[in-house]
Amino acid sequence: MTAFEPWMLxxxxxxxxxxxxxxxxxxxxxxVMLMSIELMLNAVNLCFVTFxxxxxxxxxxxxxxxxxxxxxxxxxxxxxxVIAMFRNLRSVDSDQIQLLRD
Amino acid sequence: MNEVIQTLMxxxxxxxxxxxxxxxxxxxxxxxxxxxxxxLATLILTGTSAIQTxxxxxxxxxxxxxxxxSLSRILLALFSLIGILFIMGGDRYLTKERIHLSDYYHLxxxxxxxxxxxxxxxxxxxxxxxxxxxxxxxxxxxxxxxSDSRSNEAAIKYFVLGGAVxxxxxxxxxxxxxxxxxxxxxxxxxxxxxxxxxxxxLFAAGHFLVLVAFLFKVAAAPFHFWKPDVYEGAPTPVTxxxxxxxxxxxxxxxVRLVHLPALDTSGWESYLxxxxxxxxxxxxxxxxxxxxxxxxQKNLKRLFAYSxxxxxxxxxxxxxxxLNPGQGISQVLVYLFGYVFAAVGLFVLLAQSEPRGDTGVExxxxxxxxxxxxLRTALWxxxxxxxxxxxxxxxxxxxxxxxxSSVGTGEAPLVILAALCAVxxxxxxxxxxxxxxMREADPGAAQWSGGFWSQFVVIVSVILVVFLGLMPNAxxxxxxxxxxxx
Lengths: 102, 486
Description:
Chain A is an all-alpha fold. Chain A has helices spanning 6-26, 30-55, 59-89. Chain A starts with 5 loop residues before the first helix and ends in a 13-residue tail after the last helix. Chain B is mainly alpha-helical. Chain B has one domain (2-480).
């Protein structure tokens, strides 16, 4: 069994970030897209903490607190917008929104 | 401590004003006038305070994470001016669209605070928070016409893109933190001056992600696809704020982020040439997309969206010039200021059209305007001339200045391309004038009505455009003296 190394966590965080990005691009449900954004932000949190550990600094840990705050605010606004859309279109499907185009 | 408060005064006034405006709008829900006056008073105080302290030396506060300098002060003053003009000019539009709520005003103020902190931030994490403080109210304001599905769509598109961009920026910041051990600009700059660090891959990846995030924000092609949709769907004054406030703040931040590492240090040559090549390519693509697609647009807001994409192209020329030794960012600032003064007037004019239900304002709505309203036609013409870069308007000098700085750094072929693009896109700006003057009014054309304050804002904007077009030297000289902060 190999010893635990910080770079493994970096790989995990990049993989999770890519899953979030793919979810954002591929999924059509807006709620799932919001979740994907959260996934991306949390992947970055993991990344910050790992680098913090590698550098023996506290900065990364502090950053995570700020990112979590911003993520909470962002999902609040996002859900509000999705509700506003649901009221008009009775759907949370991103395929339904194509009124604006060239 | 006292000195910190003094240095931060304009920002503190704005922050306090947001709380007062929020409080006022909660206490008097049925009337939006108190919130409106509170917002106006806040912005006037903020702007005056920023201008008064303009000559003071730059100072870093909060352990060096924010630097209050002449750059951030003049930009905060500009943002306050934009806010004042759009509050005065957008009033009637909001009433006509039945979305005149007092929440509009504190959201607008929060956007201005975010933009003001973003241009002063010297730490990637503070920058991220400021970016989100600016963006979150912007998503809400874009969806402010709650009962209109097009406004919902614009808000959702803006939000999903903005959320992803924020995460990408943050991943880049994490990589930079991993490579350099700090998120502060001066520490990163000092790190990049060490001989062993040149071309560090982790740093390069982080820098790339951070820049991509801001290229999306400024909508440089090929990162522009969201912009026309968001512009079209958002309420017109909000589109105006996005096109001026958000664009200026994002572009200045983009320039500062490009200069994050010490690119002139030996060892970074290949990295510098890669950055230059990318900026050059982005400039070409933005100019071509912006000026070719704009010709085909019928909806005026989409037309201005493509216009701002081509503005990103011209600004990329300025960024490219700033990458050469001894060049500052004055050409970028001069261009942004000139663009803002014309764009404020244009969007307020656009907001003067009577709502027409499903479709937005289209070119056909302008037909025969000269008979209905000669003054409005004249105002439209001056502002469109400035956008097209005609002489005797500020648009001419700002373009000329940016071309001059590019020629001076050996980018002559790019300048020729940019000048050709300017000629091509001039057609798109002059055609509306032709429709207003030469064509009989279309039976379906919208009615236009401004109201005193809206017309006042447009006239202020036209006076600025013409005055700075005839006497640009003072502005250029002043902005030349502003250093890029590291």
